[in-house]
Amino acid sequence: MDPLQIVQDEVVICRKCPRLVAHRERVAREKVRRYRDEEYWGHPIPSFGDPDARLLIVGLAPAAHGGNRTGRIFTGDRSGDFLFRALHRARFANQPWSRHREDGLTLRGCYITAAVRCAPPANKPTPTELAACRPYLVKEIRLLRHVRLVVALGRIAFEAFLKAWVQAGRVLPVPRPRFGHGAMAELPGGVKLLASYHPSQQNTQTGRLTPSMFQQIFARAREAGAGPPAKGAITRKRQEG
User: Fold this and answer.
1) Could you tell me the CATH number of the domain that includes residue 117?
2) Residue 56 near residue 111 (C-beta atoms within 8 A)
3) Is 238 part of any domain?
4) What burial class does residue 127 get, using C-beta atoms within 10 Å of its C-beta: 0-12 exposed, 13-18 middle, 19+ buried?
């Protein structure tokens, strides 16, 4: 069986964090009015994308009524709309939207994961929850052998990736990379780490992160050698566990 799929199967049945389990399941039961007729996913969210990806995107966590509802990260919320518009323009995605798991979205040369796989209350996972979820990211780092550039969306995802990188047996440069939008660091082994503000509504609606700023992140990813291959099928559109 595909090792990456095995990791996602482990993710979907995870119940390590009682607070996150209680929150994601309560949200899935109670719903919100605009989605009251929909069946929520209500489980941890698997990563998805191209297993031969040269670009790895690390987000924070699923949204309560986005990924926790649809079963796919950055799907069904405005953060996802912002992200996939940028990925489509940079030719990492076949379409500029992400509505539900059967919407036809596929990624090319790109893989999307997260620091935490369950929707946390107030979008704020605890340090203990981040540590409990880290082994999944560690396994993905080891298995995604073609990655040349990592885009970390937000400070928490940035720090989570660095800790997972070390736990995966990799070395950090000196001085240790620091978060700042657009900051790029060279990691040993030929991998670059590029920081970006998270495409949350708090950032996009206030102008802290504009479409042009975000588009430049993925333009730089392509320039740094993380662009999708010139030819070839788009693979691994989703993983449901």
Assistant:
1) 3.40.470.10
2) yes
3) no
4) exposed
- The H or E element spanning position 187 is strand 184-187
CA distances from 24 to 21, 84, 121, 158 (A): 5, 24, 8, 24
**Position 36 in a domain:** yes
* 3-class DSSP assignment, residue 25: helix
Q: How many domains does the chain have?
A: 1
Between CA 197 and CA 60 the distance in angstroms is 11
Within its chain, how far is the Cα of 128 from the centroid?
19
Per DSSP bridges, beta strands 110-114 and 48-49 are antiparallel
Within-domain flag for 237: no
Tens of pLDDT along the chain (241 residues)?
A: 799 999 999 999 999 999 999 999 999 999 999 999 999 999 999 999 999 999 999 999 999 999 999 999 999 999 999 999 999 999 999 999 999 999 999 999 999 999 999 999 999 999 999 999 999 999 999 999 999 999 999 999 999 999 999 999 999 999 999 999 999 999 998 999 999 999 999 999 999 999 999 999 999 999 887 876 654 434 444 433 3
Write out the residue range of the structural domain in which residue 192 sits.
3-226
Does the residue 231 lie in any domain?
A: no
- Give the pair of three-digit tokens for residue 28: 């899935």
